[in-house]
Task: structure prediction
Amino acid sequence: MPLINSSMRSKPTRTLGSFARMILLAGALLGLNGCASLPFFGGSPATTTSDTVFTGQLSYSARIALPVKSTAVIKLYDGIRPEELITEEQIPLQDKQVPIDFSLHIGKGLLMLNHPYLLHTYLVANDRIEWFSEPITVTPEKQQLGTIKLKLFNDQGITTKMVCGKTPVTLTNRGDVISMQIEGENIILRPAVSASGARYVAQNDPDTVFWSKGDKATITVHGQELPECQTLSDSP
Result:
């Protein structure tokens, strides 16, 4: 189920410079977290000996009712390899409103002890994200997460329009994800570890990549690398 509708309103465009600086900072933080959490060499990491169940509540303070038939989506990613999805849970809400209780079940032996994971939560209606949370770092040692505050998704985002050869591309950064619209597709990319620059990889498609280095960017879609991308000038 696509989480972002291609008809979503775009924000004013920005130059690649400001866009790149923002995602480079995100990449740097990701790299620091990864270096601090890498397991020691020479032995297998210890794994959980019982089931892990992350529990909590999703809520927001605004007095805005959720549309009927909304869905709560809970996703768990590896904290070192954030493009790797561990598991997800979709909770049909019918006409239920916040706060929304959730539990995410992972079988024993599937998570590593003292290893960081990233929890993402969304409220989806009509095939588009309405509310989302910033990624939360969790470990099997602490499974009760309390109340997770959500942000209105449509209020977030910086949009950049580019052209790669003759192919137009629209990139929108929202929270920890990039939405890439290209040749009729709307692809969600997440940050990935990179030796240099900021690298984002599509979920479940490692051959679709956005890679920004300074004011230059390259895009690979389903294994096909496009010509180097140029930012379009801001509209007057």
User: Anything to note?
Assistant: The radius of gyration is 19 Å. Residues 52-152 form a domain with the Immunoglobulin-like fold (CATH 2.60.40.2990). The longest strand covers residues 85-94.
